[in-house]
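In response to the reviewer comment on reproducibility (Comment 2.3), we provide here a single inverse folding case reported in full, input and output, so that an independent group could reproduce the run without further information from us. The structure tokens appear first.
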């Protein structure tokens, strides 16, 4: 059992680092939301670049997590955290700690997914608004009778 202590404690460290990375992704996603609302393309680009770096970091952590899972449960492949928690390879206190990280990661991922979906919809709506405005300015709006008249400008900050 002594050989299992080291991989489990390392796994806890990896999970802690993953959780911190996911929380950083959440902050970046909120920064993207602010950039979308403010129509700040530079801030949006910067946040997206930082997100790419954070996602790369998470990929590296996931690889390390998979290797540690193989050390804890050598017989399996694509071992899930719930399988490690349910196994006899970890002690009761370790199960409790791993379970807390599992729940925290699930919660962070759910929140990240929700915010990301809202941001994606906001970007689509913003794109559609600007497309409509450009079409209106070009006199190619849906109403042909107003095509020769001066286009109506819409305040995009409304």
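Designed residues, in position order:
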């Amino acid at each position: 059992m002594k050989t299992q202590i080291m991989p489990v404690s390392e796994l806890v460290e990896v999970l802690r680092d993953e959780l911190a990375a996911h929380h950083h992704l959440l902050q970046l996603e909120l920064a993207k939301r602010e950039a979308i609302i403010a129509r700040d393309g530079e801030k949006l680009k910067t946040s997206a670049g930082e997100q790419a770096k954070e996602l790369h970091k998470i990929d590296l952590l996931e690889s390390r997590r998979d290797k540690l899972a193989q050390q804890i449960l050598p017989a399996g492949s694509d071992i899930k955290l719930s399988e490690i928690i349910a196994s006899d390879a970890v002690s009761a206190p370790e199960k409790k700690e791993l379970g807390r990280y599992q729940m925290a990661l699930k919660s962070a991922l759910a929140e990240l997914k929700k915010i990301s979906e809202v941001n994606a919809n906001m970007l689509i709506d913003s794109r559609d608004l600007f497309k409509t405005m450009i079409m209106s300015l070009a006199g190619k709006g849906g109403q042909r009778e107003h095509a020769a008249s001066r286009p109506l400008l819409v305040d995009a900050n409304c």
